[in-house]
Amino acid sequence: MSIFSGIWIPLITPFADGEVDHTALRALVRRYAEAGVAGLVALGTTGEPAALDAAEQDAVLATILDEAHEAHDAHDGRALPVVAGLSGNHTASMRERIEQLNALPVAGVLMAAPYYIRPSQAGIVAHFTALADASEKPVVLYDIPYRTGVRLELDTLLTLAAHPRIQAIKDCAGSLDTTLALIRDGRLQVLAGEDMNLFNTLCLGGSGAIAASAHLRTERFVALYRALAAGRLDEGRRIFHALAPLIEALFAEPNPAPVKALLAAQGAIRDELRAPMTRASSALLERLIALDTGKDAAVQATEPVI
């Protein structure tokens, strides 16, 4: 069975006085391992990799991998799987980075389409095929057209699914038709990438989610996945209805500012981002704190009984 199932967290990169806070980063890895997540994504969009230089990216990944290995006791005696994010629009440079990642104990590589240049679908197939050929690790495609400027069309995805190392997709395209077609095809593990689509993706037969909002109330996200995987639809629906207002609020301003603000309010990190990202507004932080301090019961009480 593919490892690309369950709840994965695209880990933030905490900062302190402008520098990467590796102590806080280690604590976050341990926190999420103990909460039962299936794995972590390092240097995904939520981790602000565009604001990190190459040495910082290497150091962040090294810290996460090291602590994920140390956290094995909280993860059924196994190292917590870590997927490394990779982005860019120069195929040769990305191949060089993949060759570096081949030497590391990463569980896979998450890669988006080349951004900004908007290549043809044939160009996208050639790009991903070259990178997957170079990779010794499983590849997770990242379909997020509102960031890259180009979407991965269904025919393109089905073509790429034939590659033995392309095993999963982080699905952020917002197309129910594509999501369902990929699930029915069965060759790619479909991970919800838009957090509000987590429930319906799992109900359709998706394998899990890479969910930034799962930084908070992580145990409830894990419980949601487990309930739906076991066929307990009513329980899963109640959990999702309770989480939905928080999920919505966590994306009311650019990610990861709201996630960082609420984690900082809990004392887990400092509320710092690097330019051009800015901190969440005080009004949103107040809303997030209110949602995070015991509104589950109120939401469940108003949920209709079906």
Question: From the helix content, strand content and strand pairing, which structural class follows?
Answer: alpha/beta
Estimate what percentage of residues fall within beta strands. Answer: 5-15%
The CATH architecture category equals Alpha-Beta Barrel
Distance between the termini: 34 Å
Keywords: Amino-acid biosynthesis, Cytoplasm, Diaminopimelate biosynthesis, Lyase, Lysine biosynthesis, Schiff base
Catalytic activity: L-aspartate 4-semialdehyde + pyruvate = (2S,4S)-4-hydroxy-2,3,4,5-tetrahydrodipicolinate + H2O + H(+)
Function: Catalyzes the condensation of (S)-aspartate-beta-semialdehyde [(S)-ASA] and pyruvate to 4-hydroxy-tetrahydrodipicolinate (HTPA).
Pfam families: DHDPS (PF00701)
Could you list some keywords that capture this structure?
two-stranded antiparallel sheet; disordered C terminus; 306 residues; single chain; TIM Barrel; alpha/beta
Walk me through what this model shows:
The chain has a single domain, classed as TIM Barrel. 45% of the residues lie in helices and 13% in strands. Mean pLDDT is 94; it is low at 296-306. 45% of the residues are buried. The two termini are 34 Å apart. Helix 3 packs parallel to helix 4 (121-134). It is of the alpha/beta class. It contains 13 helices and ten strands. It is globular. The protein has helices at 22-34, 54-70, 91-101, 121-134, 145-148, 154-160, 176-185, 198-204, 218-229, 233-250, 257-265, 282-291, 296-302; strands at 6-10, 15-16, 19-20, 39-42, 82-86, 108-112, 139-143, 166-171, 189-192, 208-210. The strands form two sheets. Strands 1-4-5-6-7-8-9-10 form an eight-stranded parallel β-barrel, surrounded by six helices. A two-stranded antiparallel sheet has the order 2-3.
